[in-house]
């Protein structure tokens, strides 16, 4: 009888979580980019021993259900306005992370590499937390960070992992058991975008400005949290800034009828839901002014959804740095439909990629 492997995982269902690569006992699996730039597992048949471990761990091949448990919810924001401004939402993640580091622990999250692509990495210093702040809007590379996490957890110190819901599921599947010192933090995720498309966007901006990109800053709050902008800073000091209604990359991500360059699996995500198996879910608390009109929302407000006692303890330990009010999950859902709903997959996406191969990013978007 054939032993199953990730060969049984449909390509359009693979999330790129890299649990299979991390678990392979003979390192027969590599994550390599497909034609759209998304990392997918490739098996070296000369190394594979057909143990079936990759299929056993693959989160996509497992059944996932909403736990049915309504989370304890809050609207929260940092008392430090600088942290609040420089964060995606209200700055809650920074304080969760700093508390873990103060306790001698480790934080794992997504940061930019020198080439402006995104990777998951471990940090142990408070001054490094800023590397993990802010939305990246491109899929991060996990690499072998799950293996590093497993080693770290053996020391008994707290470890906070922040990632997409599917990355959290990948880590849980790889570890195979619960760790009391592991805190899983996911977020309300619309989907992850193609690294190939994202790099084309940056390269074409470099051509227009005649300078290399120095920093990418999505969700910049120059125009306010409710009208967030994309800000690109170039090495020669020039700046590109456009709000979400005019920046082409964001238009293709959140304004297009079907969303043009998200990963295939994001249109059929199995890791959404109100009751989650992570410890804390963070998000923008869109619509918060309707429930709580006295809150100053200019620099952002976080929605905090607590799913476990570990999550509650992590939030309580950070509360001295936060202002917060109790909320209800049904205050969050109406303005954050991606908590339960997937983006719509349509023909516009395929049309975009056909054009993109020959015409590049900006020209392909203009022809949509």
Model description:
- This protein is of the alpha+beta class.
- It has 12 helices and 13 strands.
- It has an 8-stranded mixed β-sheet, with helices on both faces. It has a 3-stranded antiparallel β-sheet with strand order 8-9-10, with helices on one face. A two-stranded antiparallel ribbon has the order 1-2.
- Helix 4 (92-102) packs across helix 10 (309-318) and helix 7 packs parallel to helix 12.
- The N and C termini lie far apart (48 Å).
**Overall radius of gyration:** 20 Å
Number of helical regions = 12
Order of helices and strands: HEEHEHHEEHEHEHEEEHEHEHEHH
Q: Approximately how much helix is present in the residues?
A: 25-40%
Determine the strand fraction and express it as a percent band.
15-25%
Question: Low-confidence segments, ≥5 residues, pLDDT <50?
Answer: none
Strand order, sheet with most strands: 5-4-6-7-11-12-3-13
Task: Please outline the major beta sheet.
Answer: 8 strands, mixed
Global outline: globular
- Secondary structure: number of strands: 13
Structural class assignment:
alpha+beta
Distance between the termini: 48 Å
Mean pLDDT: 93
């Amino acid at each position: 009888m054939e032993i199953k492997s990730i060969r049984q995982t449909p390509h359009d269902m693979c999330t790129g979580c890299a649990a299979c690569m991390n678990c392979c006992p003979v390192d027969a699996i590599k994550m390599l980019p497909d034609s759209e730039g998304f990392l997918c597992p490739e098996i070296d048949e000369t190394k594979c021993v057909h143990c079936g471990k990759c299929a056993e761990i693959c989160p996509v091949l497992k059944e996932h259900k909403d736990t049915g448990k309504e989370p304890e919810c809050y609207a929260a924001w940092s008392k430090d306005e600088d942290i609040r401004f420089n964060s995606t939402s209200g700055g809650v993640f920074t304080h969760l992370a700093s508390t873990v580091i103060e306790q001698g622990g480790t934080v794992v999250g997504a940061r930019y590499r020198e080439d402006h692509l995104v990777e998951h990495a471990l940090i142990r210093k408070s001054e490094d937390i800023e590397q993990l702040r802010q939305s990246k809007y491109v899929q991060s590379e996990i690499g072998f960070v799950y293996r590093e996490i497993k080693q770290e957890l053996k020391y008994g110190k707290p470890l906070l992992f922040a990632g997409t819901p599917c990355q959290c599921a990948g880590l849980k599947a790889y570890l195979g058991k619960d760790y009391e010192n592991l805190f899983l933090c996911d977020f309300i995720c619309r989907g992850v975008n193609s690294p190939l498309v994202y790099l084309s966007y940056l390269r074409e901006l470099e051509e227009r400005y005649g300078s290399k990109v120095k920093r990418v800053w999505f969700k910049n709050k120059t125009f306010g949290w409710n009208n967030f902008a994309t800000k690109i800073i170039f090495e020669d000091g020039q700046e590109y800034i456009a709000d979400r209604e005019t920046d082409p990359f964001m238009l293709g991500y959140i304004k297009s009828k079907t969303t043009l360059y998200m990963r295939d699996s994001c249109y059929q995500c199995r890791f959404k839901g109100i009751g989650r198996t992570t410890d804390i879910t963070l998000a923008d608390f869109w619509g918060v002014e309707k429930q709580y009109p006295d809150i100053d929302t200019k620099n952002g407000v976080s929605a905090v959804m607590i799913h476990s006692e570990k999550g509650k303890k992590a939030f309580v330990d950070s509360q001295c740095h936060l202002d917060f009010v109790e909320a209800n999950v049904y205050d969050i859902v109406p303005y954050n439909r991606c908590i339960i709903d997937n983006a719509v997959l349509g023909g516009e996406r395929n049309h975009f990629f056909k054009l993109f191969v020959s015409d590049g990013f900006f020209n392909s978007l203009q022809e949509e």
